[in-house]
Amino acid sequence: MKKNYLLTSENIDAISDKIASYMEKEKINSTGIIKGRLTVETLLLAWLEKAPANTEVVLETGKRFFRPYARLSFAGQQINPLENNAVDALDAEAMNYFNSVMANVGLSTTYKYRDGKNIVDIKLPMVNIGGIGKIAISILLAFVTGYAINLAGPNIAKIVATEVIQPLFKMMLSLLSGIATFMIFFSVLSGICNVGNIAILSNMGTRVLGVILKRNFIALIFGIVICTALFGVVELGGGMDLSVLKTIFQMLIGIVPGSLLQPFVDGNTLQIIFLAMTTGIILLILDQQAKGVIAFVNELNAVFMTAVTYFCKSIPFIVYLSFTNVILNGNLVYVIKVWKPLLVFVVAAICYILLETFYTAWRFKFGIKNYFKLAMPLTVLAFSTASSSACIPLLDKLCTNLGVDKKLLGFSLPVSQILVNTGTINSFIIVLMGFSEVCNIAIPIPRLIVMALACYIIAIAKPTIPGGAISVMAILMAQALLPEYCLAIYIAVDILIDMTATSVNVTSSLNTLILAADDLGMVKKKE
Questions:
Q1: Distances (CA, A) of 471 to 173, 310, 464, 478
Q2: DSSP readout, 135-178?
């Protein structure tokens, strides 16, 4: 759809209404529609303030690679509506980086001036997958189907399970894992390529990144300690002798693939990430010479993210197949036992948020009560929406209230939103170890170390889109040698895990930003 509008206050409302109607038609959820309207109105008001009278704006809506988008444009002098908050080149570069990375994980805007035209592209949120309702119906139907087939006798139930249900389930998982491996590769590659100007990462950027990685590592150790104490799955006997160290060394060396294609065939997540990081660094060094390649990588990243999102519409069907298989094989007891890892994760998440927030408030003398008044709304919003991108405006406001220097804020917000994955790391490691106990599978120390390494790296690579965690967990569970039905159990409780993990990630982003600001002397402490 393409339509011209005279840039007036009345037509700003008309354009935002038109885009809202388009988003409703595409079945985007209400939160996404509200964000879309606010974004469009903000951009058009910026143009209305600076553009000449009788300026005509062109509105286009449609899809690219099955993803809905809106474009606003007008011919005339260059007016960038996104520059209002950029105080210098560093902030502008940081915002460009932020928009390019977030473009594929939620609603975002990008501006360009081409052939005398001001053009703003708005990538609209991914289509809503469904939610807990469809999952609950799938589980209910699985119970009905399993009970009905069992009435026909154990022999019939075994034939249906082995000849019909299991092959279908394995086929769906193979498709999901196949798409997810490419999604992970292009997600990491695109993220590295979009750093753009490597000077941004020098000095201040390197130090901020150091703080972020340190916090992630602390979260990983926190999760491992909790799991080792509460889940009896880690084989601690025998000590770290030379054979164990040799095994660990061989596993770490195995991160470097023997060929370019084998990691994708095997679904080896660590090798895929290694390839992506190596390729990204090469393209970053080439800079302008690789500009066309980087643009192509970004488009492929959007393709595979969209593919995973749409494929995840079949998640309820996967749950149905898996739960039916669980019932027919008499494994229903594992569904009941899953309450323990789920409870451990929720309690661990609450404890981590409290410990980190208390530490930040104590270190910077904000006052526990006053700091919680700022941090708690952010945590609640993150939990209720399960969306990091939805929390960015509030995170920006909170950091400004805390006196964080604008330069650091411009750089750290995008970086922390992508890299601070304390909740994701904890959810991965607790789910893997908790489900191992449920299935009575022992974890040798070498495999625990490699699992932890995989969780740490892949948390950074995990796209924050619907189905991203599910896609990654499918691969991690297979590499952890967990039975296939564990994925269906995980999917059934993924909504609560995702909400809890997001609240940890976003709250940790705020605390990490304050820690980085103190390290750089760029925060005003409250006395």
A1: 9, 12, 11, 11
A2: HHHHHHHHHHHHHHHHHT-HHHHHHHIIIIIHHHHHHHHHHHHH
The closest alpha carbon to 128, from 107, 99, 109, belongs to 107
**CA-CA distance, 269 to 452, in Å (whole number)?**
13
Q: Rounded to an integer, what distance in angstroms lies between the CA atom of residue 183 and that of residue 304? A: 5
For residue 65, what are its two tokens? 């690679």
Q: How confident is the model at residue 524 (pLDDT cuts 50, 70, 90)?
A: low
Residue with tokens 């908790």: 434
Count CB atoms within 10 A of the CB of residue 322: 28
Look up tokens 């569904």; give the residue: 335
DSSP β-ladder status, 443-444 and 56-64: unpaired
Residue-level length of the chain: 527
Q: Are 107 and 39 in contact (CB under 8 A)?
A: yes
Residue 119 is classified by DSSP as: E
Q: Render pLDDT for 481-514 as a digit per residue (tens, 0 to 9).
A: 888 778 778 877 777 888 888 888 888 888 877 7
pTM greater than the 0.85 cutoff: no
| Residues in Cβ contact with 234 at an 8 Å cutoff, skipping those fewer than 6 apart | 227, 228, 433, 442, 443, 445, 448
- Helix 315-328 / helix 132-151 crossing angle, nearest 10 deg: 30
State which H helix or E strand residue 454 sits in: helix 445-461
Euclidean distance between CA atoms 244 and 68, whole angstroms: 51
What's phi and psi for 483, nearest 5 deg? -60, 155
Q: Which residue has the tokens 């170890």?
A: 433
Do 435 and 479 contact (CB within 8 A), yes or no? no
- Region of 130 (left: φ > 0; alpha: ψ -120 to 50; beta: rest) is left
Six token digits for residue 70: 């809106």
* 275-284, 294-303, 399-408, 460-469: range with lowest mean pLDDT: 460-469
Residue 102 CB neighbour total at 10 angstroms: 21
Cα(3)–Cα(421) distance, integer angstroms: 42
Sign of the alpha-carbon dihedral angle for 338, 340, 341, 343: positive
**Structure token pair of residue 379:** 């945590």
Cα–Cα distance measured from residue 387 to residue 310, given in angstroms and rounded to the nearest whole number: 18
pLDDT digits (tens, 9 = 90+) for 90-141: 444 444 444 443 443 345 677 778 788 888 887 776 554 445 677 778 888 9
Which of 213, 237, 504 lies closest to 379 in space, CA to CA?
Answer: 504
Question: Helix, strand, or coil here: 481?
Answer: coil
pLDDT at 106: 45
